[in-house]
Fold this sequence. Notes:
By secondary structure, the protein is of the alpha+beta class. The chain has 2 helices and 4 strands.
Amino acid sequence: xxxxxxxxxVDKKITKTLGLVRGNTIRARHLGKDILALFRNIIxxxxxxxxxxxxxxxxxxxxxxxxxxxxxxxxAIITARLTTSMxxxxxxxxVAYGTAVVVE
Length: 104
């Protein structure tokens, strides 16, 4: 599956547009990781526990978007985007979305 943020794919011709596809995940913080993050917040530096959590969440949302596109018969996704929103204290939703297309 080709996934791009642009509206076109170099050297490929879009033959069919199948529509919007999306994938999402909602993740909550973990108490143990929160304690480690609190210490890092005091002394400064990257909070690697949250970096890893958000990275895994993005990958899961993208995988779900790709699965949605495959179900429609697409072999590519154009104009792919990611967005994050806070749902409540300590929980965030990550959504991956784009346009499913068939290219040759």
